[in-house]
């Protein structure tokens, strides 16, 4: 899918590499990222060439359902799975780093996991888990110094001192996620990849953690790459959004624009499918779309060859969609990959 | 789930001791061990000196287990046999655990081609016929006590390696390992700080179950005449000796055999208990 | 589809009545209270939503009705299906009730379906066991059931294995299995949690249409308040093993009476409102299952707490709803309580 004519989705208005004052405009610039796995011996592409940018202090949302490739993108950026393409981070090419250089850059790029209890070693106490980055990065600290640094960070994220000595199975999901945040922030990263950070938490805890992340981001000037399938949570957490379908970016726009005027049929389907806590609410009439018909049931799991990947589920699909894969094109603030999307 | 500070091991031990049958197993094992250590010291009879005036006597107050074909006190010999069997069991198990864990954890951690290579090696070693191998070694090196350790240790690590490798692969899928990789931990540090503690539970269980199987192995070797050399005795060699006298003087067989069976039973039961005590906590 | 449940003269009779239902787990000397004093009524053809977080006991409630609680469980109180008492019923009776009169749809279809049997075999098994159908009749009925839940190409699907189907389709198969014997009551335990949001929307539409066409009564358990708004007639909110509020759906969402309900509703990020700078959130966390506070379990987290909340609040009735809270003025204070 070519993007050369309109710049990367989620790249904002002008894809210049520097602001007026000469500062680098983008903290992370991803171009044509491709992730491929071998499934039962055959190659399978999880991400078909994604391009996007994140500015310092900005929060970019990667939205998609299962199979969209959003998790693979996160893992590729953290060098947990192999990938091709380019990812320039703070002036370095992430995908080309090895050895010591790679280890050094990891301090600046951390990750928060979806299942906070599983992300902690069950045989290590919370305090030890949080303090692990301090053993890897930074000077040799005495045990007492490390402990006080950990306690300070724990206080920052709202964890009581008593939790330092507890084991993961002795704390709740919300507390475990706070511990995960503390561990991720200790090395002083510039970019935090959040992989569905509140998805597995109780409803009353979701908003606590969402608030905490937003607050920390503002205080520390962090950039976030926020991955989620939940359009309601993402709206609160992100400045710009990119929508993924089966490994391809189908739409990218600033937050308010995306929610007010979704252009791609898949984005419209996602928004229409979000449950609204109001029994008197009726689904808005979107073009050729109702929540029930949105995305036809039981569509085949494998992507069709050629053409638009969404065409088998799209109520607007026509002959052109099978023949020609749509490229990302700019419409107003947004970028859309659809032949028939209009403002 | 209370807030008190409890080590995970202490918790497991507590759970183990809650089960009555496990407490009894531990009492019995402690008694056996105590007897094995103290009886030969306390008894006036040596384990090796033949006494021609007292051969093949049935159990009596002066010889609670009777005497064997050379007039030696069977109680003392059986206790010595316990010592030897336990020693072989513990040392050979320890060896095989160390080798097996190192091999299996490394294979599981590295994955890919290294894993395939290391596991195929295990497969090849499995196919080597054990008894003929020991016979060959005996011929080459002569009958030496240490040979028994080496032979048994060299074979029993294979099972543990397989188990540990499977468990290490499963651990590698867990999110906390991904988190550790995201921190940039090198493989050695990851192995030591994350894999080994999480493998410890299953290793303890299998080690406890390896001891009885090693003891039985050694018993088999001794029964075939390939194990410990006379006058040293193991429970296995005593059973071999007893089998020869079985028809007329069953006591020479019955006592060592019963004790061997009791020892194996207790160790297996303890292994089961440990597995129960450790598993439900382990994610 | 044949239906005997939607006849008008039975519309008001409760199909399922729970009175003082309590569930404890006994292990050695310790006793864990999971459910306390549950009173609920399910009327014919209605959908009762049960919402709660972890530790609220909502899933345990469904399991307890069918006698599927784990080892060491002690159920007390009363749960009547029609006239039949289910608490302490014999295993034979419960076996006849399960699947036939009350069906349970689980959250994870992949674990609930036998991975070694084809879909058709699993459907036929249920039909032959409970309804005594012949093999040919059961096969035909199985295909009908798949069509009912909008699975395309039913004949082909019957021959497939669970892992060959997508998540949404597997959940439909579970629904078909549960409806096979035309039960009076359908219990759903987070049936859409593991699904993508677009597939979830389809499944909810399917549930609504099934309810309309078969008149089956439903108990829908979830943590997602938004989901219930689309299907529930009444909603019960559970916290720490008790029901803290129960009301007709429209009323609960528009004017919640209990501070917990109000907090839950206000902490949901919504798509159609302007973005707040900070999401209202309930401080603290839900209590561990089985912890037994003396007074109101929500008191430690409640912004409207008072000294009298140290005692268990009585249940009061107000305009068609029931709520367990001392603060009669809570409904009007929600905006201040959760800024």
Topology:
The complex is a heterotrimer of chains A (343), B (283) and C (339).
Chain A (H helix, E strand, L loop, with lengths): L27 E12 L2 E13 L4 E5 L6 H8 L6 E6 L2 E2 L5 H8 L2 E4 L13 H11 L6 H14 L16 H13 L5 E5 L7 H18 L2 E6 L2 H7 L2 E6 L2 E7 H6 L4 H9 L45 H5 L5 E3 L2 E3 L7
Parallel strand pairs in A: 3-8, 3-9, 6-7, 7-8
Antiparallel strand pairs in A: 1-2, 1-4, 4-5, 9-10, 10-12, 11-12
Chain B lengths: L7 H11 L1 H23 L31 H37 L1 H15 L3 H12 L3 H28 L2 H8 L4 H37 L11 H11 L5 H28 L5
Helix pairs in contact in B: 1-10, 2-3, 2-10, 3-4, 3-6, 3-8, 3-9, 3-10, 4-6, 6-8, 8-9, 8-10, 9-10
Chain C lengths: L13 E14 L2 E14 L3 E5 L6 H8 L7 E9 L2 E2 L5 H7 L4 E4 L3 H4 L6 H13 L3 H14 L5 H5 L8 H13 L5 E5 L7 H18 L2 E6 L2 H5 L4 E6 L2 E7 H6 L4 H9 L47 E4 L2 E4 L9 H4 L2
Parallel strand pairs in C: 3-8, 3-9, 6-7, 7-8
Antiparallel strand pairs in C: 1-2, 1-4, 4-5, 9-10, 10-12, 11-12
Helix pairs in contact in C: 4-5, 5-7
Described by strand count, sense and barrel closure, the largest sheet of chain A is:
8 strands, mixed
CATH class categorisation of chain B: Mainly Alpha
- Categorize the overall geometry of chain A: globular
The amount of beta strand of chain A, in percent, is 15-25%
Mean pLDDT of chain A, to the nearest integer, reads 84
Overall structural class of chain B, as computed from helix and strand content, comes to mainly alpha
Gross CATH architecture of chain B? Orthogonal Bundle
Number of helices of chain B: 10
CATH superfamily of chain B: MetI-like
Distance between the termini of chain B: 15 Å
| Total beta-strand segments of chain A | 12
**What's the Cα radius of gyration of chain B?**
22 Å
Domain module tally of chain B: 1
What is CATH's topology name of chain B? MetI-like fold
Uncertain segments of chain B are 1-6
Shape of chain B: elongated
The helical percent of chain B reads over 70%
Classify the beta-strand content of chain B into a percent band: under 5%
How many angstroms separate the termini of chain A? 21 Å
Low-pLDDT residue intervals, each spanning 5 or more residues of chain A? 1-6, 284-301
What does this molecule look like?
- The complex is a heterotrimer of chains A (343), B (283) and C (339).
- With 343 residues, chain A is an alpha/beta fold.
- Chain A is built from ten helices and twelve strands.
- In chain A, a hairpin with a 2-residue loop joins strand 11 and strand 12 (334-336).
- The model of chain A is unreliable at 1-6 and 284-301 (pLDDT under 50).
- Chain B has a single domain (25-37, 74-277), classed as MetI-like (MetI-like fold, Orthogonal Bundle), CATH 1.10.3720.10.
- Helices cover 74% and strands 0% of the residues of chain B.
- Chain B has ten helices and no strands.
- Chain C has a single domain (14-101, 181-337), classed as P-loop containing nucleotide triphosphate hydrolases (Rossmann fold).
- Residues 1-10 of chain C have low confidence and may be disordered.
- Chains in contact: A-B, A-C.
- At the A-C interface, helix 5, helix 6, helix 7 and helix 9 of A face helix 7, helix 8, helix 9, helix 10 and helix 11 of C.
